[in-house]
Amino acid sequence: MVTLDRKTSGGSYPDLEKTDIKHQELYEGSVREDAEDPIEAKKVIRKIDIRLLPLLVFLYTLTFLDRVNIGNARLWGMEDDLGMTGYHYNIVVMVFYIPYVLLEIPSNMIINRIKPRYWISGLTMGWGLSVTFAGFSTSFGGLLTARIFIGIFEAGMFPGCLFLISSWYRRHEVLTRMALFMVSNDIAGSVSGLLGAGLGSMDGIKGYSGWSWIFFVEGGVTCAAAILAFFCVLPFPEESKFLSLDEKEWLLRRLKADDYRNKEREKITLKGVFRALADWRIICTGVMYLAVCVTAYSITIFQPTILSGFGWDSLKSNLLTAPVRIVSGIVSVAMAFWSDKVKRRGIFCLSGYTISIMGSLIVMLHPNNNVRYMGLYFAAIGIYIVQPLCIAWGSNQVVGYTKRGTLTAFAISSGQIGGIISALVFPKQDGPRYYPGISTCIAFAFVGIIAGSCMWGFGAYENRMRDAGKREHLRNLPPENLEGKGEKHPDFRYTV
């Protein structure tokens, strides 16, 4: 049994790379349960969880809050104060995503080369200041400029955090952690409505409108959080210092045995990125996440507007966004835990898209406003089940820092295109039913089902081929070449 105590193992760990372990025992890429001390393993993983996740959850809560607070600001006179008409609001929402899409892959190339705490804290300070200055806007152009800078600085946060999380855990531990991280969206969605109601009521204080106070306060909190991030964000596992030497060596060996990653963390290069982008699994993950984000951003940014179309006032519309996000967050984490436990992704992914489609149809077609509000719950629950799942599923299917870093950045870049789409298909004149916008959400959910079915079908087929010995010829390769095969290794199993 592998333990964390050198004394009990004769001064060194058993060499897992040289142990005669049949590929059936490594089914789906996991280390055998009896190959490690479960009590010691839980202690180390718990230590990592405590040091890594709470801070990242907090930071991404602020990221999402600062991104979507414009939906709440809209209800407190922002458009009238800045002379915004027609599609101006939609343009302000959309322009954020342009630098966001373009800069995510370069950002993961940078975080791979420098200490994550430097990069993440710098990004946090940058967008915090941009949000704060947005409150001083006196024209449509000023707000537009602030939103561009928010997009520039926020671009690296989401993919960088997911890249960092995926580096610390085995393949069937990572979804639960990603879901806990992404529950930040639901926390932000819940808090955004409450803050929008509270801060907006400061309208007139010191001569500033309520929408300005939303930006001032939320941006100021983010700047303070940047200082905390500088001191507390963890590095990659190979550079960690909070683990003992024994724990660190055990962790790295465990991660390598799980997915055949190289012992040393490779640098992400432009050539490696282009090679990774030719992998259909990475493209498929991007399509799934694009399908998620069309609905997710529509719910987040336009939910207050949709609710106000029910005939409810601004305060009620803001407050009633919170319960939807709370419920969807709880269900998302529960489904992620279940998915990790049973080591399955496909059935959860396709079910989430289907539930979201049902909810969207209710919102669009049902005559009763209370029932339509219930439909928002189903639309949100379904899509937020899929959001962390499709990123984790894609990460489960590839090996190595370059592919995982490229996958998280490319998928999230694709998702932000969904944000651009959602910004364009919900003009105010389409209310209160918003047939074009909601129909677009439904169409993309069907695209997600198709992409998920392809990922599921290919993984199941390839696993059957490997179980039948159809990939055993690869074992004839020299050991150094076989080790570098990654997901093509005959012992590797896809997650389905």
UniProtKB/TrEMBL annotation:
- Report the main location listed first in the record: membrane
Cell inner membrane as UniProt keyword = no
Q: Where in the cell is it found?
A: Membrane
PROSITE patterns, from UniProt? MFS
What Pfam families does the annotation carry? MFS_1
Q: How does it sit in the membrane?
A: Multi-pass membrane protein
Q: Which UniProt keywords apply?
A: Membrane, Transmembrane, Transmembrane helix, Transport
An example Gene Ontology molecular-function term? transmembrane transporter activity
Task: Give the Gene3D superfamilies listed for this entry.
Answer: MFS general substrate transporter like domains
Residue ranges annotated as transmembrane are 50-67, 87-106, 118-136, 148-166, 178-199, 211-234, 280-302, 322-339, 346-367, 373-394, 406-425, 437-461
Major facilitator superfamily (MFS) profile domain segment(s): 52-466
Q: Which GO terms describe its cellular component?
A: membrane
Instruction: Return the annotated region ranges for Disordered.
Output: 473-496
In this chain, composition skew of type Basic and acidic residues spans: 482-496
Instruction: Provide the protein name.
Output: Major facilitator superfamily domain-containing protein
